[in-house]
Design brief:
Helix content: 55-70%
Number of helices: 9
Order of helices and strands: HHHHHHHHH
CATH topology of the largest domain: Four Helix Bundle (Hemerythrin (Met), subunit A)
Largest sheet: none
CATH class of the largest domain: Mainly Alpha
Oligomer: single chain
Radius of gyration: 30 Å
Distance between the termini: 118 Å
Shape: elongated
CATH superfamily of the largest domain: NADH-ubiquinone/plastoquinone oxidoreductase chain 6, subunit NuoJ
């Protein structure tokens, strides 16, 4: 079997994705696990771009790598992890971050070489057969033929977000929390007390100037 440059690039990106996924689930450090997961998503995006699914690849990088995983990293850094010391510096995560950044840079250079060396996709492109771009074909298929699975996936993700918030919600001593139910039931009589007082005129002190 002949392996050309695009095929080798696809296999290398897939291998990096598998290794990074295994490192993400086997890492004991939560910050390292998030960094390996970022590399996993980026490698999968590279495989999609090589397969002429540019929209999916760019969406994966922008949405998951650029937004979701950065949010995960901030949450992990702010959580009070028992296994992680509270005062760890940035230098502790620098080696893993440099390895992930170097691999992502190498994959971007490989993608540039693939796009400049290939003219025919690896397999039959349904978008090209339909006479439309990849984005137009994907949007038409997503909101016509696969509309129900798309809506079901949105509901599942919403339920997953709510469940994750409920599972990770913890009460800590000294922390202030809001209770929306109590706030809605609040009445003006419970917050304001009207007090009626008799007005009194102050009497000048004896011995001062101007005192009769």
């Amino acid at each position: 079997m002949d392996f050309d440059y695009p095929t080798l690039s696809f296999l290398c990106s897939a291998a990096v994705a598998c290794v990074a996924a295994l490192a993400a689930i086997s890492s004991r450090n939560p910050v390292h696990a998030v960094l390996w997961l970022v590399l996993t998503f980026f490698s999968v995006a590279c495989t999609w771009i090589i397969g002429d699914a540019e929209f999916l690849g760019v969406a994966l990088v922008l949405v998951y790598v650029g937004a979701v995983m950065v949010l995960f990293l901030f949450v992990v850094m702010m959580l009070d992890m028992e296994r992680v010391p509270k005062r760890e510096g940035f230098v502790r995560y620098l080696p893993v971050g440099l390895v992930v950044a170097a691999l992502m840079l190498g994959q971007m250079l490989v993608l540039i070489g693939v796009r400049s060396a290939i003219e025919v996709p690896l397999s039959a492109d349904p978008a090209a057969a339909a006479g439309a771009s990849n984005t137009q074909w994907l949007a038409r298929a997503l909101f016509t033929e696969f509309l129900l699975p798309f809506e079901v996936a949105a509901v599942i993700l919403t339920v997953a977000v709510v469940a994750a918030v409920m599972l990770t919600l913890r009460r800590r001593e000294g922390a202030r929390h809001q209770n929306p139910a109590e706030q809605v039931r609040a009445k003006a009589a419970d917050r304001i007390r009207m007090v009626k007082m008799r007005a009194e005129t102050p009497t000048p002190a004896a011995g001062k100037e101007g005192t009769p």
